[in-house]
Design a protein that fits this description.
The chain is an alpha/beta fold and about 130 residues long. It has three helices and five strands, in the order αβββαβαβ.
């Protein structure tokens, strides 16, 4: 080790610098291969009048008595179903998830699915518990 008594230290230890550069290079190579979603470059066209498709997930709960709630809002009469559902969707593409009690009548579940189909809901899911 040299002692510098008469001036500033002008030597730089390059070993830590090379180690850091190699680590950064490895990280870059790994992330570059993972983040390659397309096999070739695509330049998408732009449109000013395109509709933005946003989905509104609406949860419809049915208890064992057959009472219905839409996103926590109780439906008092069957006529209110369409109004409450439409208010929850607010112009977005509707997507419904039905959470029915296991003792709910099968016919009541089919009535709800039929109402959703009349409201043009294309995606309907049924919530279940997983073991």
């Amino acid at each position: 080790m040299k002692l510098h008594r008469h001036g500033p230290i002008t030597e730089i230890n390059m070993t830590p610098f090379v180690d850091i550069v190699l680590v950064i290079l490895i990280i870059f190579l790994l992330t570059a291969t993972v983040m390659m979603p397309r096999t070739f470059s695509i330049c998408l066209p732009q449109a000013t009048q395109a509709d933005r498709l946003e989905k509104a997930v609406v949860i419809i709960s049915i208890d064992q008595e057959g009472r219905i709630a839409i996103n926590g809002i109780k439906v008092n009469q069957d006529n209110d179903f369409n109004q409450i559902f439409t208010a929850q969707v607010q112009g977005k593409e509707p997507q419904a998830v039905i959470a029915a009690d296991k003792h709910t009548r099968h016919g009541r579940l089919i009535e709800v699915i039929d109402r959703l189909k009349c409201l043009q809901v294309q995606r309907i899911g049924i919530e279940v518990d997983q073991p």
